[in-house]
């Protein structure tokens, strides 16, 4: 089921349909969640996992290393501030996922999901002019979760199990993409009702505004970002552009909210925040990734080649040149990409974060041409940052240094066990060294990281079979890890099926 993208969404998968149709008949015999006013955090986490699993499978889900790192650079300080202010309690902190899932989608949208998962469209990053604006949206959504708005909202559905609630939310998400297919999908009229119940109340929105503003300020972001982002959405709302701004459907720009924000704006004494070169480049990247069509890519190249660009502020120039070079590379026009890249290098000279992004872009272009020695020349191979790590270890595996790659990646996944891309690279690094057993386990862990326990268990079982046939190279430690992990994943899978 495509949940991220409106334009290319067609029909629910068979699995989703089966899941949705199963809802009604099962209802009567199921235990209730309880009569308490709130959904338990454990139940909410389960609902979230069920939905997140679909999002990971969505063709528009992206783990773009540069965008993800940039979003994390905003998200983690917001989480820390919410902890510091006591909005994020130790219990919720531990129970919930607190993960942002990015979708390649040109529409402007962000949404809080049960259990601490957040969905963010690349199109929203593309319309922000500085990190404070992006922080304001994330802080608002974060506050919906910490204030338990979701659990209060779904309490009305307390006859349903977590699994049914997940199906209902998935249905409503699909419905918001394509009203006709969607509402038919979630059982006619009941679907619409569910969707309405799945919107936050105005009080909840006000609370998320107020607490979000406090959290983002405590995290060191400019409150001004809240105001300018709000103005941007309000402007879109006046143009009635809600097709491109689905965020407006769930966050109507009421005059009340506007007045609230106006009064807060007076508290802020600082002027508008100038965009950094880095943000302009990240936002340009989001724009190119959101609009992968040939015409859009050509448009990005044309903008970069326009003579009028030289008169623009430096950040704008950096963004347009970065977007143009990336677009040219995607069009496989290497000559133009190189030429725009040279101009980009001159433009960002002296600005370290922007220079780093430019280098990463050059490395990415070399990677797409499988020019691994060039990748290693461009990337700071000693860096502990994720985009560098992923590029470096991949290039090492391809150039006879798989052992170095697996050592670096092993250390990394020990600290970041949910990094599916790193597990996948680790699998290739082991395979390149002829360590098939470890390769299969790393591949299994990549599936676990994206909550696909069924696929993970298949791989653990294949690994156990290899051990039985003596193909494990007497790697007893590895064999015992595989047995333990297979049991753990099996129990997770059993838990999942009991939710029905
Ligand atoms: Zn909201």
Tell me about this structure.
The chain is mainly alpha-helical and 500 residues long. It contains 27 helices and 4 strands. It has helices spanning 14-21, 23-27, 41-57, 65-84, 90-95, 122-127, 131-146, 149-154, 162-177, 179-185, 189-197, 202-218, 224-238, 246-250, 255-265, 277-290, 294-305, 314-330, 334-348, 352-368, 372-378, 386-398, 402-415, 420-432, 436-449, 453-468, 476-498; strands at residues 61-62, 99-103, 110-113, 117-121. It has a 4-stranded mixed sheet, sandwiched between helices. The protein is globular. The structure holds zinc ion (ZN). Zinc ion binds at residues 140, 144, 200, 205, 208, 251.
Topology:
Elements: H1 14-21, H2 23-27, H3 41-57, E1 61-62, H4 65-84, H5 90-95, E2 99-103, E3 110-113, E4 117-121, H6 122-127, H7 131-146, H8 149-154, H9 162-177, H10 179-185, H11 189-197, H12 202-218, H13 224-238, H14 246-250, H15 255-265, H16 277-290, H17 294-305, H18 314-330, H19 334-348, H20 352-368, H21 372-378, H22 386-398, H23 402-415, H24 420-432, H25 436-449, H26 453-468, H27 476-498
Parallel strand pairs: 2-4
Antiparallel strand pairs: 1-2, 3-4
Zinc ion binds next to helix 7 and helix 12.
How is the largest sheet built, in terms of strand order? 1-2-4-3
- Kindly report the average pLDDT value: 84
- Overall shape: globular
- Count all strands and give the number: 4
Distinct compounds present: zinc ion
Which range does the strand content fall in? under 5%
Radius of gyration: 24 Å
Which parts are unreliable, with pLDDT below 50 for 5 consecutive residues or more?
Answer: 5-36, 179-194
State the share of residues found in helices, binned by percent: 55-70%
Cα distance, first to last residue? 19 Å
* Main β-sheet description: 4 strands, mixed
Structural class: mainly alpha
> So how many helices?
27
